[in-house]
Amino acid sequence: MTAVETPEATLEPRVRRPLRLAELWLLMLAVAAGVGAFALVGMSISDALPTHFWFESLALVVLALVAHVVVRIRAPFASQTILPAAVLLNGVGLAMILRIQESGARGAAGADVVRNTQWSALGVVLACLVLWFLKDHRSLRKLTYTAMFASLVLLALPLVPGIGRSINGARIWIHLGGFSMQPAEFAKITLTVFFAGYLVSNRDTLALAGPKVLGLQLPRIRDLGPILLVWAASLAVLVFQRDLGTSLLLFGIFVAMLYLATQRFSWVLIGLLLFAGGAVLAAEVFPHVSQRMTGWLHAFDPAVFNARGGSGQLVAGLFGMANGGLFGTGWGQGFPYLVPFSFSDFIYTSLAEELGLTGMLAILLVFLILVERGLRTAITVRDGFGKLLAGGLAFTIALQTFVVVGGVTRLIPLTGLTLPFMAQGGSSLLSNWIIVAILLRVSDSALRPSTLPVRGQVGQGRIAPADGEHPGVGNADGEHPGTAPIQVVPPRVGGDL
Asked: Which domain holds residue 365?
């Protein structure tokens, strides 16, 4: 068999797998930060290691190593900063939950670090399974409309009598077999898959058709159908489930992915106008939305502060952050447990009090690195579906982080969403670890060198568009045309940081 006839399958082993040493070192630092925080919590509160120190530390080390090995085997060319960033955020979040639980305060009764560690372990296991069995992210495109159906089912489950539950006024939970879960956390993933598959097939129509008014390329009326449908679905979540955060998240993901697919600012403007109009209407018609708006605008008004469901929790969080100052009170030295739900919805204010403004910015920087790696993956990957999928998932983490941090700092109204990887909650941990796994898979595809026969000889390289070719999202099917000239770019064997 000549070199030209050699099948690609026989060439794949010749691509040397990177050692991923950078990821290993970063994981060691991430685990050390978590274990160190566990120890500081106990030493500050009782001058001894906390009750669950060895369990938490061993669990964090094992989970990080298992995830690293699976990534090393199944996605060796993926970005080497995505996994350490997720482990660092998860570890610091567990340390804060442990700190609140160890305080023994009445307001800390719901904190359960052991249970949250178990959910973290299950999330890492699910991420490893996704990496192991999802060999090519493009296979998800075949599930475009299946993902749409699954999304509708997941969003409707909390409304089903018998399994749906209302907690704190929001009907976003289901209870099955003694376990509670938020289906909307998984719907954000399936919706992103659906949006990516739908938009990669219809982006030419959305981007090119329609009149131009005042410098903006407006869509045709019939092309507004999908965005109006998603707008109606997000308002339905807001009205029937009383969940402002999920409504904002779902609609924001779709508008962001529309912009990624079409590069038309008019879609963003239309989306913002539609959501703003819907939010104003909901604030006038529905009491629970009006209550959130009043608590945001008049947080320090005594009548609002003392009202049931008023701004007391928000103001307590603000005072906690003020108490933290620039460098914080230190692990175990503050009073974060005075804020209701300090281990879930308000965990960011708890971290801000004990780590200070410096710690807040460091945590936001880690989130920024995670999102930047996702967007970099979207830029690098060569198929249109992968670009939209990675960009949508990265924006999901970015938007959820902004909504949570903006809510507790009173930049925007409180929404009830949880901070990814850090807040107590099984559904959030599972869904966000699945997002990490998909980003790693797409990143591996983007950075993996392709093995191609070049001029009668076996060569290794990465397919790139020739000079003058558009390196964007490809043709209408999301792939580069097979007739395009091919250049071979030398592979980056060491992976990408």
From this structure: 17-447
